[in-house]
Amino acid sequence: MSGAVSLAGKADWLGEKHLQRLLAALADGGEEARVAGGAVRNALIGQPVADVDIATTCLPDETIRRAEAAGFKAVPTGIEHGTVTIVAGGKPFEVTTLRADIETDGRRAKVSFGRDWNADAQRRDFTINALYAEADGTVVDLVGGVADIEARRLRFIGDPEARIREDYLRILRFFRFFAWYGDGRPDAEGLKACARLKQGLGQLSVERVWSELKKLLSAPDPSRALLWMRQASVLTSVLPESEKWGIDAIHALTRAEKDLGWTPDPLLRLEAIVPPDAARMKTLAERLRFSVSQAGRLRQWALTAPVEPKTTETELAKRLYRGDHQGFVDRLRLSLASARARAVDDNDALLEAGGFSRLLAFAGRWKKPVFPLKGADLTTLGASPGPKLGATLKNLENEWIESGFALDRGALLGRAAEALES
Q1: CDD domains from the entry (predicted)?
Q2: Is-contact 325 363, C-beta < 8 A?
Q3: For residue 14, how far is the Cα from the chain centroid?
């Protein structure tokens, strides 16, 4: 990436006609507009681009006027910070006026608008996120971001402590972006600054904290970043449940995901680094304001008892029927990952891995059977509605489960008749 750098051949999305029309409209009459940030970074790295953001010298009201004159829809989503969402060709583009931070409190900033591209770059967090691209693909690098991409190095722009004090979320973003784009060891000065200022994380909303943690846990391999977070005591600050627990299990899980073709699962990865304690998981979910489904999954995983690798499929089917299917799948995946990691030089672990693999495959194809009887079947036999009917039905269901679901409707009705006569 030495010399002049261009996105030519690296970013088909840049040539899309609606984006080109929008850039042209914003750059007309002496103004300027460039693609900014993550889209440029990902194109240079060769990773997919999900969102395209634009920086412009146009003031927000002028951005709206020009976009609407070009036939696009403009939505003032963050106009106080200079951001307008333009819908062009059915796609949203966040367009933000060049700006500088004039006051920060560690969570939010007051900004002033300007026309200085260097000032706009300097207010951003990391060098790899402060790149711009002209409409023709020419990359504008004012902070050394291209060289850092080439070296897979993550650096704060300027003084790391100053950048962090502007927004303490940047501590978590440092580890998140390192997980996605970094290599080797994290930047030493950045790491030290994160460790020194970790108390500032307490100022952040829990929603922002979990959002960053989830993105970090979604990286192809978050294990190195998590270990450095623990080293800097940052992980304990936001996830105290991980302290003195088996965080090293994340290595085994990410290897298993890669080898077995599992889709990276941030909640499963979280389960790999926290204890299966239902009470603590409830507290964790409440503290980070998990969704109902996320909190429920974490709780069910903690409540699900471990499965032994020699368990028969029939016995597992009984447990699956009575328990939470996702909880068992999570338990089995983590057990399989751990056994595979130990199987390198341990024959017993190799056998365990085979057992867990067999059980996981069975759980994947298992469908919960439907109990053949209902209360109406017992009333037909003369039972009166009430506690005895319910208890009889429950006992019959337990017999059916213990038979391995082999008892058919006729056999169950016969047993029901006998039970009601006694």
Answers
A1: NT_ClassII-CCAase
A2: yes
A3: 27
Could you give the angle at the alpha carbon of 45 between the alpha carbons of 44 and 50, nearest 5°? 85
Can you read off the two tokens belonging to residue 10?
């690296």
Q: How far apart are CA 100 and CA 233, in angstroms?
A: 31
Other beta carbons less than 10 A from residue 173's beta carbon: 22
The encoded tokens of residue 14 equal 């840049």
Q: Could you tell me if 31 and 41 are in contact, meaning their C-beta atoms sit under 8 angstroms apart?
A: no
Q: What is the pLDDT of residues 136-187, one digit of tens each?
A: 999 999 999 999 999 999 999 999 999 999 999 999 999 999 999 999 999 9
Kind plus residue range of the DSSP H or E element containing 253? helix 249-260
β-sheet bridge partners, residue 6: 138
pLDDT tens across 231-241, in order?
999 999 999 99
Question: How confident is residue 109, by pLDDT bands cut at 50, 70 and 90?
Answer: low
Using DSSP, state whether 154 is helix, strand or coil: coil
Report yes or no: 40 and 46 within 8 Å, Cβ to Cβ.
no
Distance CA 408, CA 111 (A): 72
Angle, vertex CA 255, rays to CA 251 and CA 256, nearest 5:
115
Torsion of CA 297, 300, 304, 306, to 10 degrees: 30
